[in-house]
Amino acid sequence: MGPLFFMRFDIITIFPKIFDGFLNESLLARAQKPAKGGSASGGKKPLLTIGIHNLRRWTTDRHQTVDDRPYGGGVGMVMKVEPIYKAVLSIKGQVLRNKKSKQNSRVILFSPRGKQFDQKTAKRLAKYDQLILICGRYEGVDERVAKHVADEVISVGDYVLNGGEVAAMATIEAVSRMIPGFIAKSESAQKFDHAQYTRPEIFKLGKKNLAVPKVLLSGDHTKIAEWRKKHAKA
Predict the structure, then answer these.
(1) pTM for the complete prediction?
(2) Are residues 196 and 118 in the same domain?
(3) CB distance 167 to 135 below 8 Å
(4) Which of 51, 65, 127, 204 qualifies as a FRET site for 86, CA 20 to 30 Å off?
(5) pLDDT tens digits, residue range 157-168?
(6) Residues 138, 186 contacting (CB under 8 angstroms)
(7) How many domains does the chain have?
């Protein structure tokens, strides 16, 4: 049997090459390939597909302009609503879970003013068939995108980035881990890390001997579980 769930991410950006290495390494690269025994043309499908879309494709002038000066004045340029709206319309609904169901899509704009992204959000977003991720740049994005084009606005932290591309990468990683089959051990897909140790049992750092906590060497699985719970992020 093929994967029980298939998901698509569509990224709207003016810097598509930023994602080249990110998407072609590790678990994300494997998840985009057909399942073992399948093929690209038939057989078992990949767990997910990631489409990168250059926003400039949806501009109409010869300079492929995606930004303009803000009304009311101010420093820097603002990304225009028209090409973003056209891009979302063009991309939305491209992929269906199956021919009998409607496309379950969610359009997300990344902004420092958005709702804080967390594990609960990742779990919720993993229930969609398609996430369309809008990566802003410059001084921001026309507010009409947030209010009338995107379904929600998300922030990955209380700080300002050069653009939404890093936020999109973080979102893709966190959401992908919720897809059944993406992580080999399902119990590790959404847990927060606890403190962990491996060999050597004692590591000499200058004059200090840094030892592994004795409870982890005890073989008492109940006490080990309690210790890990105590030393895990809440």
Answers:
(1) 0.85
(2) no
(3) yes
(4) 127
(5) 999 999 999 999
(6) no
(7) 2
